[in-house]
């Protein structure tokens, strides 16, 4: 159980804290935020007030001032500052202001929980209303949902305590009334005993006395009711008086604080002027150093760009030179090819123009058909020549010569084609 309580306490410390400050470029707002972050809340409030004198409609300044007041536990004045921020009508301030107003009301209620349950209940109920508004504006706000559930549980526990106290008061009243009734019964019994001794005349007096007693009881009940109503009215009056007293005390405290703040502002202004003189010098030095750094960086970037451009140009030159070389090589190769083709064509022309000797060059066998025709013609000539004498014609003489030449060519070609066949040596059995 102790672990769970520790976890709940840490959660509350985180969730019920004031919201983060809104940043700005104004010098006075930056000072106020720096003081706030260093937990110098009074000084931060003074700086925010001086800025609000210049810009009274600045919702951001109102919100930041409310956070500083919340940190000082002055929750009512913080609520006023948040409401003024909401009145400016800026959408980005609404959810955060509603959330912080809910936190402030919870803190006020927790202060009254031990002494005045009614005031604590009222503050818790208002806190729940503002948490609900914050959730409606930002449904993803987990902190607002957690706080709503937590405060709702606190309110339920307060109501249970109130009911228990009321029951105790009723029980006490009933006990008191019962005791009174018991005393009256005892007294009546004594009177009855006395009256029984006195006779019938006394019985009549008893009846009258009983009636009178009943009437007295009724009157007592009425008086009790009236007294209760009067007590309730007195309690309300007392509560109203306390509220008025609290308001007066708060006003007096504000006036005292304002007076102190004015004195502190005068002192702080003198101190700030001194600090601003020092800070301006530091800022100038920092600005100079930053400008130098920027100039150096720009120079480096320019040099890098130049180097890159030079590299690109060199690469382009190399590529162009390589292309030129490749083109020249291609031209030379093409020229060589053309020259070789020309040489081949010239050699072909020369080979066709010169006669080839028979039996050399290409080794083609003589075609058989013209030889057969020539041999046939020669046979005809010999067959006709037997037993008959006649002269040879020119054509027949040419045919004879060509036949002899063909035989000589065939003999030469056969000689050229012959190859020496290697003969295997015989096995020698020694």
What descriptors fit this protein?
Serine Threonine Protein Phosphatase 5, Tetratricopeptide repeat; elongated; disordered N terminus; 430 residues; mainly alpha; 84% helix
Brief rundown of the structure:
The chain has a domain at 1-171: Tetratricopeptide repeat domain (Serine Threonine Protein Phosphatase 5, Tetratricopeptide repeat, Alpha Horseshoe), CATH 1.25.40. α6 runs antiparallel to α7 (117-137) and α8 packs antiparallel against α9. The chain has helices at 2-15, 27-37, 41-54, 59-71, 75-87, 91-112, 117-137, 142-198, 200-353, 368-385, 394-417.
Describe what you observe in this structure.
By secondary structure, this protein is mainly alpha-helical. Helix content is 84%, strand content 0%. The chain is built from eleven helices and no strands. It is elongated and about 215 Å long. It has helices spanning 2-15, 27-37, 41-54, 59-71, 75-87, 91-112, 117-137, 142-198, 200-353, 368-385, 394-417. The protein starts with a helix and ends in a 13-residue tail after the last helix. It has a domain at 1-171: Serine Threonine Protein Phosphatase 5, Tetratricopeptide repeat.
